[in-house]
Design goal:
Blueprint lengths: L2 E4 L5 E6 L5 E9 L5 E3 L2 E3 L4 E7 L5 E6 L5 E3 L2 H4 L9 H24 L2
Antiparallel strand pairs: 1-2, 2-3, 3-6, 4-5, 6-7, 7-8
The structure holds zinc ion.
Zinc ion binds next to helix 1 and helix 2.
Length: about 120
């Protein structure tokens, strides 16, 4: 489940639990396509869409996106150093349902404009 808090001014944060299970607030900034490149010794794959997640209490910032294959990718250490072939992390697990919900919302918006 993904939790988004939106205040009365319309400012929103995404809540992601840390390793101890405590909810941490992240700012989300939508990004555009990312070309594959090397960044600080890490190979960043081509990402047709991306977002930047910034943890508000530490300032840690992660690039997260979905690759052409449909697999999610994240620049966080947990994802970067995971040994499993089907890598994931809490950021990818948070953004996957948000992305699906946004696609659903936008589809409904486009559909509604036809009437
Ligand atoms: Zn991550």
């Amino acid at each position: 489940m993904t939790v988004i808090l939106i205040d009365d001014r319309g400012a929103g944060t995404i809540q992601i639990p840390d390793a101890e299970g405590e909810e941490r607030s992240y700012d989300l900034t939508l990004g555009g396509p990312v070309m594959g490149h090397q960044e600080a010794g890490v190979r960043v794959p081509e990402l047709p869409r991306s977002v930047r997640l910034t943890r508000l209490d530490t300032g840690d910032c992660y690039l997260v996106g979905r690759q052409k294959s449909g697999a999610w990718w994240c620049s966080c250490p947990s994802f970067t150093f995971a040994k499993r072939a089907d890598k994931t992390c809490k950021h990818c697990q948070c953004l996957a349902p948000l992305s699906a919900w946004l696609r659903h919302l936008l589809r409904e918006t486009v559909h509604a404009e036809r009437f």
